[in-house]
């Protein structure tokens, strides 16, 4: 170590200008190196600092020595090293800290206030306590739903406060620590336990030479599918093979549902298409036509079977003749259907005729709980008997993978022709769009789904307004609809390869399938389209405890007068 004597100090006044310049340069270099190693304001406040300006002043007063460049370097280099050592926390360079949350101060001039940190810490403790209450609640089935709802609101409020506290400190796509993807895993929107082991079923073992013609005429496709499902129950009770109607008389069922799969699910032939029936009917071989021996109407009012002269003409055009007149075994009004038992159906529709037809059974109320149970009333080895066509199911899955992902809400937003229909009911089921948006937003918050699949017949003016109102935590939740055909997109390639492109009924079933596969479903009260989706969700095991009709338990906040 170099020692400087007092005599040397006294002679400092005789130092040359070059040596003074060297000393000044060395001090400036030392300042530059120190500046390069300065740390952030927040870390610096947590340990002692070194007063560089004071040091420089003292050096100028006390070390005005007549030294060469080399001597100056040897004297001041150790000082610079000591300054760097004292000014730098090297532990930051050789250790890793994992913070509880993500705080970035790059865009801030100050540090996070201690009160903010304390509030955040208390909120997280509250969140932990609320989750403990929640988990205890969902495991106790006797606890009322209101308690669970109250706890959920507290958790939701807690998260909003945490986000508000953190919002000034976010520098990118940063989320708060702690709960995230599993925020309600097994919680508020669990799948419904359908308890399939307790199903009440009937064996469908038809006589191979006895047939039942399904007649479904009321409403659109969804009504016809519900009617067809009830016909299966009737066919099982009467031990007959069900004949699926021809597309020249009804819808093109083979394009929409998987008919062959029904037989596979039961392990025997229980349904045949009209074309197959035509080939094997023994009467056709003799008389070159198909003959229905007896046409039985389930309803007598307002008109028998809903069958008019136009439908009779269509049947004749198919080469079908009907023996006798339309008859009904009882007085039954569509407007007021009575409860019927399986035994009553067997007794009143039993016949030794080879071919009978029954219609229309859409409004029939036979063993409702039995028919509506998951999987339906007939014993089989599949999830459900009436499944979408395989091509539709695959296309729905490809659409979900392309646009939606695993966690999404599906919304059936029925509007066209629904205003008058709903206002005729009490209470009405037609909601103003702002009210509907409020109901949907509450469910979005509960589910934490990033997108909503929209199945609707609404005008763009209505869906545009609805989209603008779906905002949660300052972010718009997008409504996703099926886009128009684009050759660059391949999710719907199966449709145009197999000639299903542009079929409105195929597209309707595609919508149902996408809705049926969603995490949570919001339906339209009074719509059979919604009811068929709920049937699929129930049978597929995708039904959620959060599934509901739009604005359930509410009434429209404004209702127009009647005409």
Key attributes of the depicted protein:
transmembrane helix, alpha/beta, single chain, transferase, disordered N terminus, elongated, GDP-Fuc_O-FucTrfase, signal-anchor, 45% helix, 563 residues, 23 helices, 5-stranded parallel beta sheet, 14 strands, 9% strand, glycosyltransferase
Short précis:
The chain crosses the membrane at residues 73-94. The protein contains 23 helices and 14 strands.
Protein architecture, described:
This protein is of the alpha/beta class and 563 residues long. Helices cover 45% and strands 9% of the residues. The chain contains 23 helices and 14 strands. It has helices at 6-10, 17-36, 41-44, 52-62, 69-87, 91-94, 114-139, 145-166, 221-238, 253-256, 259-266, 274-280, 282-287, 309-317, 342-349, 368-372, 390-404, 418-423, 433-447, 460-469, 493-497, 504-516, 528-540; strands at 211-215, 241-244, 271-273, 290-292, 294-297, 320-322, 355-359, 409-413, 452-456, 471-472, 475-476, 479-480, 520-523, 548-549. A five-stranded parallel beta sheet has the order 3-2-1-7-5. Residues 1-16 have a biased composition (Low complexity). It comes from Arabidopsis suecica (Swedish thale-cress). Residues 1-25 are annotated as: Disordered. One of its GO terms (molecular function) is peptide-O-fucosyltransferase activity. InterPro entries: GDP-Fuc_O-FucTrfase, OFUT2-like.
């Amino acid at each position: 170590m170099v020692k400087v004597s007092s005599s040397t100090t006294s002679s400092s006044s005789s130092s040359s200008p070059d040596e003074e310049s060297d000393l000044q340069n060395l001090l400036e270099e030392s300042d530059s190196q120190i500046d390069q190693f300065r740390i952030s304001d927040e870390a610096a406040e947590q340990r002692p600092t070194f007063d560089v300006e004071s040091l420089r002043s003292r050096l100028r007063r006390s070390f005005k020595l007549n030294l060469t460049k080399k001597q100056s370097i040897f004297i001041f280099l150790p000082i610079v090293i000591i300054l760097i050592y004292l000014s730098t926390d090297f532990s930051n360079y050789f250790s890793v800290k994992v913070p509880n949350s993500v705080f970035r101060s790059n865009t801030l001039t100050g540090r996070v206030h201690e009160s903010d940190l304390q509030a955040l810490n208390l909120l997280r403790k509250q969140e932990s306590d609320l989750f403990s209450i929640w988990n205890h609640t969902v495991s106790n089935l006797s606890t009322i739903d209101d308690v669970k709802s109250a706890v959920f609101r507290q958790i939701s409020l807690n998260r909003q406060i945490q986000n508000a506290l953190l919002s000034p400190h976010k520098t990118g796509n940063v989320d708060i620590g702690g709960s995230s993807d599993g925020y309600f895993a097994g919680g508020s929107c669990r799948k419904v336990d359908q308890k399939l082991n307790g199903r009440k079923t009937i064996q469908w073992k038809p006589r191979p030479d006895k047939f039942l013609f399904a007649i479904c005429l009321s409403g659109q496709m969804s009504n016809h599918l519900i009617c067809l499902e009830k016909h299966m129950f009737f066919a099982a009770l009467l031990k007959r093979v069900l004949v699926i109607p021809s597309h020249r008389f009804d819808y093109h069922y083979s394009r929409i549902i998987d008919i062959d799969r029904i037989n596979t699910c039961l392990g025997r032939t229980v349904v045949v298409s009209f074309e197959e029936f035509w080939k094997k009917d023994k009467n056709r071989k003799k008389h070159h036509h198909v003959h229905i021996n007896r046409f039985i109407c389930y309803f007598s009012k307002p008109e028998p079977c809903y069958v008019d002269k136009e439908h009779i003409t269509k049947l004749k055009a198919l080469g079908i003749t009907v023996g006798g007149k339309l008859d009904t075994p009882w007085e039954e009004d569509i407007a007021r259907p009575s409860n019927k038992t399986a035994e009553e159906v067997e007794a009143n529709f039993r016949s030794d005729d080879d071919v009978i037809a029954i219609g229309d059974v859409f409004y029939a109320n036979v063993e409702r709980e039995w028919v509506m149970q998951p999987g339906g009333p007939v014993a089989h080895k599949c999830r459900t008997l009436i499944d979408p066509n395989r091509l539709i199911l695959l296309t729905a899955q490809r659409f979900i993978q392309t646009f939606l992902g695993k966690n999404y809400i599906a919304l059936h937003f029925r509007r066209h022709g629904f205003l008058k229909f709903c206002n005729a009911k009490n209470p009405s089921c037609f909601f103003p769009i702002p009210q509907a948006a409020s109901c949907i937003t509450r469910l979005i918050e509960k589910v934490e789904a990033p997108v909503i699949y929209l199945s609707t017949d609404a005008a763009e003016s209505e869906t545009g307004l609805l989209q603008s109102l779906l905002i949660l935590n300052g972010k718009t939740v997008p409504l996703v609809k099926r886009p128009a055909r684009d050759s660059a997109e391949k999710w719907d390639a199966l449709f145009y390869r197999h000639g299903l492109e542009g079929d409105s009924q195929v597209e309707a079933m595609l919508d149902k399938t996408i809705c049926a596969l969603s995490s949570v479903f919001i339906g339209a009260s009074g719509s059979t389209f919604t009811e068929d989706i709920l049937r699929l969700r129930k049978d597929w095991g995708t039904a959620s405890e959060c599934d509901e009709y739009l604005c359930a338990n509410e009434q429209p906040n404004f209702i127009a007068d009647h005409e």
